[in-house]
Write a structure and sequence with these properties.
single chain; five-stranded antiparallel β-sheet; 12 helices; six-stranded mixed β-sheet; about 40% helix; Rossmann fold; 16 strands; Phosphatase 2c, domain 1
Length: about 425
């Protein structure tokens, strides 16, 4: 009966729950030498697999992944150095610990074996003490390599899980960002005789600076811009909650009018300062279309800028506390008369607080000069150029705070028709 290509000899039994003894593969075509070495290793407490040639040894390595491989140099077919080269060429096996066993340990032979992939040499005539020392040293190296591989595999798995979670989070953030942007007005004509354009760039995927231009009744256009303190998901969710309150049907029930001062007074009562110190600033305007009168009120917000076509421009703001700081305060409305070609800009402080590389803020004056300098261009061009100027000052594209800029221009009927063509 033909001898099997490899066999596992009797091996020490491990107590239940203890780590099994290291597994060593012996590859030698000489059965007597192989049995002798296997017996010595077994008596030292190791598990042993035997293989009679290089090809069989490679198959065992692939199937069993032993902790240590001891190869005879001289074997028919694939010799020991040939097996070493095959091991190093295989990405799955190349980290295997390999000892070449030879009866001739000449320096040139050792150099050749090391250059072809062996990690160490063991003489067939070695003493029990030398065999034990070399095997133990090789197994220590093997254990370190295996630990590195396990750590690498754990890191790879963790990276894959982290990447999957990151992709899932980014997808959810994108969905949330799309939802928030869907709450913003569509550029164009919010009402007859008006045109509107805006730019919006949150500092993170989600922003807490939101705005709207929306009908409040048949003859009124509601305008507002709000700023939730903080950034990211929490600020955006709180901002959407305040936007819900500012819907026409909610205001009709909760406030009973569309007066900006009354709206902010009620919002101040409903949105107190949180336990974490989060709050809102808010600017609310109500444009009465037949008279072109803009009523407005503000709660701690930087406000709006009115660029007048034929008179002095002005900032539509007043000193006031943000929402929730004093629940008993009453906010009052102010008013401004709009004329043809007047533009009202609602803006967040993130645009004029853009810092230069030296730390100097862009400032309201530069913002105002940019808006006024583009007054003879279309509103869309003016918004675009203003954002570009702020980024040029910033020397970058990423603002440290949310940036929102909305413009509404009063047009005559003929200009309105041209704007839509």
């Amino acid at each position: 009966m033909a001898e099997p290509a490899h066999r596992i000899i009797e091996q020490p039994t491990a107590d239940k729950g203890t780590k099994p003894a290291p597994l060593i593969l012996l590859v030698d075509d000489d059965e007597i030498t192989r049995l002798s070495m296997a017996g010595r290793l077994k008596r030292l407490g190791y598990r042993v697999i035997e293989a009679g040639d290089g090809v069989a040894g490679l198959n065992v390595i692939r199937a069993q992944r032993p902790d240590l491989v001891i190869l005879d140099w001289m074997m028919p077919g694939m010799d020991g150095p040939g097996v070493c080269e095959a091991i190093r060429a295989d990405p799955e096996l190349k980290s295997s610990q390999v000892v070449l066993m030879t009866a001739h340990d000449r320096p040139e032979q050792i150099a050749e074996g090391l250059s072809r992939g062996a990690d160490d040499f063991l003489s067939k005539a070695a003493s029990k003490q030398e065999v034990l020392a070399r095997v133990q040293a090789s197994l220590r190296s093997s254990a370190l390599v295996r630990e590195i591989e396990r750590t690498r595999d754990d890191l790879d798995r963790s990276h894959r899980l982290l990447s999957a979670k990151q992709a899932e989070l980014e997808s959810e953030l994108q969905s949330a960002s799309d939802f928030v942007r869907a709450q913003l007005p569509l550029p164009g004509m919010p009402a007859r005789g008006l045109t509107m354009q805006w730019a919006y760039q949150p500092s993170l995927a989600l922003g807490g600076d939101l705005f709207q231009a929306i009908p409040w009744g048949s003859e009124t256009l509601g305008l507002y811009i709000l700023d939730a303190s903080g950034h990211g998901v929490a600020a955006a969710l709180r901002a959407v909650e305040l936007m819900s309150f500012l819907r026409e049907e909610n205001l009709a029930k909760a406030v009973g009018s569309f007066d900006p001062g009354a709206i902010i007074t009620e919002a101040n009562r409903r949105f107190p300062l949180t336990q974490d110190g989060e709050y809102f600033t808010l600017w609310v305007g109500r444009l009465h279309l037949p008279s072109r009168t803009l009523f407005y009120a503000t709660a701690g917000h930087s406000g709006a800028f009115l660029h007048a076509a034929d008179r002095e421009s002005q900032w539509l703001a007043s000193a006031s506390l943000p929402l929730g700081f004093d629940p008993d305060i009453t906010f009052e409305s102010a008013s401004a008369k709009l004329r043809l070609r007047d533009r009202v800009y609602l803006l967040s402080d993130g645009i004029y607080e853009a810092p230069s590389p030296t730390g100097e803020l862009w400032g309201r004056d530069r913002l105002q000069a940019t808006l006024e300098g583009n007054c003879n261009h279309t509103l869309a061009h003016c918004i675009s150029e203003t954002m570009a100027a702020a980024k040029h000052w910033l020397s970058g594209d990423i603002f440290p705070d949310d940036v929102a800029l909305l413009g509404v221009e009063v047009l005559d009927d003929l200009a309105s028709e041209k704007e839509t063509l």
